[in-house]
Fold each of these.
Amino acid sequence: MRFDIISVLPDLLTSPFAHSILQRAQKKGIAEIVVHNLRDYATNKQKSVDDYPYGGGSGMVMSIEPFAACIEKLQGERTYDEIIFMSPDGETLNQGIANQLSTHENIMILCGHYKGIDQRIRDVFVTREISIGDYVLSGGELPAAVLVDAVVRLIPGVLNDETSALSDSFQGDLLDAPIYTRPAEWRGHRVPDILLSGHEAKIKEWRHEESLKRTQQRRPDLLD
């Protein structure tokens, strides 16, 4: 699976993709993550990629030409299943969206900055807009990293334990059950006896019940 990410600040994405699961996925050849510097497609001497908004107002708007040039170059090299713009007014990222995207082959992600990007880029090129929450960040790089992480870990072969991703919170529209490791007792707090019993069926039932209980307490909206 390949991700092409277009950013005006590509260095912001160096660290998130150079460690842990994402690094292993790339070394295994399961995922390919390529970050493109939008300024490389600017046509002016200053390599600027923004301009003042029509109609006045505060902030700067990212220009059409650099984005269009980069997108069309990449489209000439491969077909993209989705061209995603990370935006606070997009659909909110959830596990279902991550599951769906993990089945794709090529995804392009556009990272906005300043006041945003020219609406015509969204109208002409973007196939999907995704938000990671109801708040505004300085740019789309961190949301892009969140999206890639959520998707890549679902690709078969990325995690050492193939069943691990399937038991994550939200996979069955439920939050995950409490988890424990050694020691069995710590400062008077003991691991539930059922988890020490070795009875697989009863442990599975306990975990499901705890998932339901935790979801009811913390995210009852998921049960609706």
Note: The chain has a mean pLDDT of 94.
Amino acid sequence: MPTVSCFLSTTDHPLDENHPLWHRPLPDNRLPGTKKPDRVETDAITYGQYFSAISRFCAAGGWDRIITAASRQLEQPVVRQDLGRLSIFLEKHGAFYHPARLQVKVKDQALSFVVNVAASFHGRNALSREVKALERLNDQRPFGWFPKVYSFASDRLPMFLGDWFDGFHEFHLTQQPDSDEPALVVWDGAATRSVLSEKQAAALYRNAAMILTTCYDPLTSCQIFPWHHAAGDFVVRAEGDGVSVRLITVRDYATPSGIAAEPDDERAILDALVNFFIHLSIRMRLDRFDGVKDVAWASDHYIVPMLNGFFQGLDLTARMSGFPETFPDTFRHYFNHHKGTDLLTMARRIAGTVFDQRTEERRLIDRHLARHINELHQLLAVSG
């Protein structure tokens, strides 16, 4: 039988029933700007209940969930006798989930998994949709961009077991004392956080835009939504002058109400794609300084990488949808036929639909939107 140990973030912080935190409730990291639900929340989940629930989830059925996940990850059979120590690390108090990183010794190898635990009202509502979305996208877009889902349980504490991307870390914009331009820092656990170079930061925005666009279905307007850099949805790993990017959460994959509709002809397909593109371009620029501070607006430097990523993704998704190779150029010409004032009107409608006007995020968008749309319009006109 594997031995189970519980920790906060590292092995320097072990946790058991004798620790003062064991009987205390997990922090409630509710989504900024959201209202409390009308229904009464269930009792708060304690640290002890959290770790105990994950332990039971893993051990259920003779450790079948861990055995199945390890077999798929190693691409070879694993039996219970191959399992060694299981370490559970509480990684984050997220707006939707309290994710735990599992480290499992299997045949003298250390394998990593994630258990996303829905301890909040919003998380419980989202988790089953996320499981379906991840399974669908991993089937339709098998490029390794998302965690595979190995198992799911819908008990009092719903949770699912998936891949943990070793070496990938959350990132956020940060203010620099010697510059007006924010930099991108990687939360890699180092005492001094790594700052991405301009090339690496550009590659990050290009890859994130490419992933989201590749997952857009132009026939139905289905897309990954909601997502937000401030929530740490994307993670990054530096690789020389470039980076690799993964999307660790997909809260839904559908046609978002109010900002998209399922198109019924060629023009409707292009109109829906213009809406997707404008919304993507706005949301790509939003973050929070250091993940939790004021809302941040990314530099103009990242517009071109974002555009490049969008068109790279559009080429991929068009091919997968059976569209002609010329479809990205068709979209570019269609976009360029719009007047700048019309594009700004569309952008304001999208902002008004998606972002609450009372929030700091919306106020920041309103300040930058005209310049942002003008920049997009000029860049696409030149390249077209």
Note: The two ends are 63 Å apart (CA to CA).
